[in-house]
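ok so I'm stuck.
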Amino acid sequence: MISEDFYKRYSLFLSSNPLFPRYIRWVYEKTVKDFERTDILPSFTKENFTALLCGTCGEITSGIFVDHILKFNSRGRIIILDYGEAQVNHSKVYISTKFPDADVSYIVADARQSGIPNASVDFIDTDFMFEYLDEQSLDQLFVEWKRILAPGGCVAFRAFGTGSWFSELIYRLFIKSFCKLILKSDIYSHTLVSIEETMKKNGFEYFIAGKAFLPFGYRFVAKIKNT
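replied:
not stuck anymore, here's the structure
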């Protein structure tokens, strides 16, 4: 669970770093190339295309995401969702000024119960959000994603997936300690195998496209398996 002042803490210790927006832009650029390496292809140019940013640290991530989507589809519909009211409100203020003509809506909600209509989202993106969910909650998130994804819709995300005692140790020493001591938030570790098993259980096919941030940080692209 995130702390009550998560936005303030995240802004102070992470998103204020000039390298942070460079990382977000790099990730989105890599994601496009990751999709091109697979048969998992977002229909970015589709009429009424709808993209969901599922979790945001605030206006920096949200703004870069909106800009990224609009480059592909200037009429695309964009949803910014987060559990934290501050993250969403700061995103709304920034985006309404920076992209006044963009079709953007905002939701303060638990991502596992988004309230988004069935089969209405074409693309979902999130970056290192799984750490704030335990194993059961992660399963519930994929259930929700499956519910809201439109036919042919797809997902891109980055997540830590430990696989050895050493990676688990590094995770606990650096990632978990930082979140606990600095962000005042509890997080959970997931093995790469457990993430894959959860995706398979919920009917997703996926491609691990590469690494992100740390050796046990992975870039995924995925879609619902055709039946």
